[in-house]
Amino acid sequence: MSIPTITVESLNKSFGHRQVLDDVSFRVIPGEMVALIGPSGSGKSTLLRHLVGLTCANRHSGGRVTLMEREIQSAGRLRRARRSERCRTGYIFQQFNLVGRLSVLTNVLIGTLGSMPRLRSLLGRFTDEERQRALACLARVGLEEMVHQRANTLSGGQMQRVAIARVLMQDAEVILADEPIASLDPRSAREVMEILSRIHAEDGRTVVITLHQVDVARRYCHRAIALKDGRLYFDGAIGELTDERLQALYENAGLDELRAGEPSATTPALGAVKNTAPRKVAPAMV
Ligand SMILES: Nc1ncnc2c1ncn2[C@@H]1O[C@H](COP(=O)(O)OP(=O)(O)OP(=O)(O)O)[C@@H](O)[C@H]1O
Description:
Blueprint: E1 6-15, E2 18-28, E3 33-37, H1 44-51, E4 64-67, E5 70-74, E6 77-78, H2 83-86, E7 89-92, H3 104-109, H4 118-123, H5 128-140, H6 156-170, E8 174-178, H7 186-203, E9 206-210, H8 214-220, E10 223-228, E11 231-237, H9 243-249, H10 255-260
Helix pairs in contact: 5-6, 6-7
The structure holds adenosine-5'-triphosphate.
């Protein structure tokens, strides 16, 4: 059996008195494309941030996160990582996190800063080879015509494609994407998902992506991990995520919209979900 790319063990996180993650454990094996789903506020982003050490679990709670055999955090303490180790994980944000006044090309080149010698990274000097590689990354996301445009003049969908090119430039083995399509129109969202799916299929990258749209998760991901009130509610093949289970997962989240067939930001686009009253399902899915 292959060594897991991501191992999460008994993760607990509270903000003040509010417990946001409650004893969450799972593993992701190399090359998986996993959707992290659940109602708004269920803890998806918090969990994703734990995977890269942007958030630290409760002290002395015993929780542990390991990425590619490197411990990220344990019992509420972050482990220091070398720059080269940090580069192995790429993070895509809902709001893109580009430097607006810089060109598209420079934003992509920024992806290589972590792996270049520190002095050269401070000076921001890039080699011809790095520029060629950045151009190739932009070609993969279909933006080779826009290399000199300032990032803040792009559409949202284009910005997200630049952010993906930056992760490609970084040569990250694991891509974590936090609601990468939440602020995009349907066409741009589809383009971004197609690109991520292609990268996963062609390069064998491991991808974990938080999504509100269950139909998108069904189309592009093989496995779903669902959180409900900070607890692991479902972990399995996407095909086993039946409408009934989804109904129970989202049972208090925007049922009015579900009935009206108008998915909202807090409600997944359930597609063929039945308009039945919410029902409890056996919580034996994990
Ligand atoms: N830094 C923080 N300080 C205090 N509370 C926080 C912090 N970050 C997150 N929370 C709270 O933790 C809970 C889970 O938030 P999180 O963003 O992880 O949920 P989510 O499932 O990603 O939601 P959404 O789908 O709406 O983005 C929320 O109640 C949120 O208000």
